[in-house]
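Tokenise the fold.
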Amino acid sequence: MVSFLHAGDVHLGNPFSGLSRQLNKKFEKAVLNATYDAFRAMVNSAIERRVDFVVFPGDLLHGSGNSAKIEATLSQAFLDLDEAGIQVLLSYGNHDYQAQNEQGRSWPENVHVFGNEVETVVLASRAGEKVAFTGFSYADRMEKTDRLSTYPMRAANVDYQIGLYHGSLGQAGRDQYAAFSLQDMLQKGYDYWALGHIHQREILHEKPFIAYSGNLQGLNRKELGQKGCYLVQTSDQGELTPTFLDFTQVLWDKVEYEDVPSFDALVSRLKNAGTDQPTLLSVAMTGEVGDDLHSADAKGQLLEQVQSLNFAHPVWPVNVSVVHEQKTEKPAFASMSFDEAVQDVLQEDDVLAALLTNQVPLELRQYFLSNEGKKAIKDRLTVLLEGGEGHED
């Protein structure tokens, strides 16, 4: 039975974005350590579960010039995995592509780093299955090369073949980020594709699974919900099947409150939004909203006022806004029947005159401006707009 963790887009040490300077002191430590703690939790889970491999398909790091803390965190984690008999497969993506060329970095022997060209490494699981891993590291940030075309077909002499791929769906060789098509990926015959690049968990295909694991920890208020990685195991049918593991340290979430009559009412709702997990919350108010809230929002003071409150539970508002409904007037014809709308257009001689320019022969202009001609136009419009003919003119 093969088992491994598929952890894309760790972005170790990357700071959160979209936070105000006056971050609540209770949150500072959790926020600063969130990506480190999520990474460590993932490593501990791999060791506890005695998986065979840990797979990082790009953007393990956020960029070049990594700190001593990041280097120490990675070195210790890889040593711990090595001691537990777990092998690591690592490719670099569009954020950490420069790490491929950094000097002086030396990982333990259990870590295999893919080069800039597509390559395959064959390793053995604890149970002795032969597992092939195929991948590459980005040569530059954009990576517009058709990388998938250089992946070999599934090898016949292995039990499983797994593809590591950091990229996005698109036109191969034209679009950036190693664009690929799902059909081309399926044609390779691999047993599992461990994808990276988008910070959203998504399964593109089953049997075989082609999946994005998302990132280990949300980094801004667009990256909502639980984050983590996939535990991939051999099913009873012999297929490699992913199961989500949650390693969220700080949750990004959003709520919508309808009809909030006052600031006190907003405070009451927020204080009842109990949670045990540190949560960075975006709040949108709709419907009937109190004048004091509208005024504070217009002055740009609403968020600061909410952040000045002392919540007993670990919630920190990062965005508070009043949603202003856009009122659109119905066009005059919206209340008309179909026949009335067509007739209204035909009665506008200016409209017809604009269409029947001097380039149209005089006889035709006179005909279509006559009652008989207008009726002919109406009949033709009725046929076209009601779809009475099954062809295009």
User: Anything to note?
Assistant: Residues 25-49 form the longest helix (25 residues). The two ends are 62 Å apart (CA to CA). Confidence is low (pLDDT under 50) at residues 387-393.
